[in-house]
Amino acid sequence: MEGIQQKVVFLSLYMSYLLSVYTRRSVTFALPEIATSESLDKNQLGMILSGQTLAYAMSKFACGIMMDFVSPRLAMSAGLIASGIACIMFASSHGSLFLFTIFWIMNGLCQGPGWPAAAVIMRKWFRDEQYGTAWSVLSTSMNVAGTCGPLIAAFIITYSHWRYSLLLPGVLAMMFGFIQFFTVRDKPGNYTAEESKKKKNGNESSQKVISRKELLKLPGYLGVCITYGIVSVVQFGTLQWAPVYLVNELGHSIITGNSFTSSLEIGGICGSLIAGYYSDHLLSQMKDEPCQNVRQYVIAWFASGLVGFLYMLTYCVTNYSSLMWINMIGFGLGMTIYGPISIYGVTAIECAPNEMAGTSHAFAGLFATVGQSMAGLPLSYFAKFWGWRKMFITEILMVVLMAGYLFMYTKSCHVQRETATKPKSD
Predict the structure, then answer these.
(1) Which CATH superfamily is domain 2-184+197-417 in?
(2) How far apart are CA 402 and CA 387, in angstroms?
């Protein structure tokens, strides 16, 4: 019976977060059409997007800590319903930059409980040896939303109006928010996972009792947060601006732009599953290594691939490029972006004591959402004054530094561990 309940809970979480992502990105899916029909320039669009992501950053951070004190099921349901309402209100606004910005900030605030609540519920419903893989599968919900969302939006915009492409996810989010409240439970009836967590944690120092102020001083944790922020800049910079670059700069159709986004999300599904499975496989083979170090090593290799695909987007795509070539690059970008993102949350939690899992996830998520906000207005200014190509070159340099740090950090940790365990000669 519990196995059936676990599947129902997981499916409900999957659908809830899928719709949460769909509503959060609905403006991005319709961005080229909104810019044209509402006469908004890059800076105004960047203001709307950055306002939402900054609000999301603050809300997600606060809700991550709050999950220790309130029902995550209730918080997730209420947030999904409220974000659907905000989406409908945005679609109902007419020609007002102020209202667009206000309603999309409201959407960001309402999105805050979604992922922290799902993380807390998942932690209690799945054993440690299942947690990484289950987390990666749940992460694919954002890719499914990102794959289907642009295609649905393009179809609606082509045959109707961009406002209806926002009304649809808003209504669906409100409906499923009520359903999710009755299908999800905060924890199973026989929840006794604490002992298992303590045995599986690979970082002995992380079991010490520490204050929240000392969290960033834990070995490797600050590096996880910063690199999570970097990959989030690249993620949202590519999601938000690559379609605009393809359509407005290179002259491709909106179908091509949205097809690129869908290919990126399909690649993200593959990358998430590969990262989750492969990191768990390495953990089973490298039992003496801390879990978080093994996952960072996997992230470093994904980042190396990301450099190559960003280079191809920058230098190998022109106004004459075929749809298949553009989609191939989009697939590769999605696989190498979402692979790391799918396991960063687990990595952050594994760096910290078990009793601070929610807080450690909240701090890492704060860095990620700040990175997402930087992909809005700052990158739009950069593209306006220096051009799209230099903006993508900046992303490449950031990822190169990220990959270099991760390789050096995991290597140094491995050497230190081998030196500490090597028997001393007389």
Answers:
(1) MFS general substrate transporter like domains (1.20.1250.20)
(2) 23
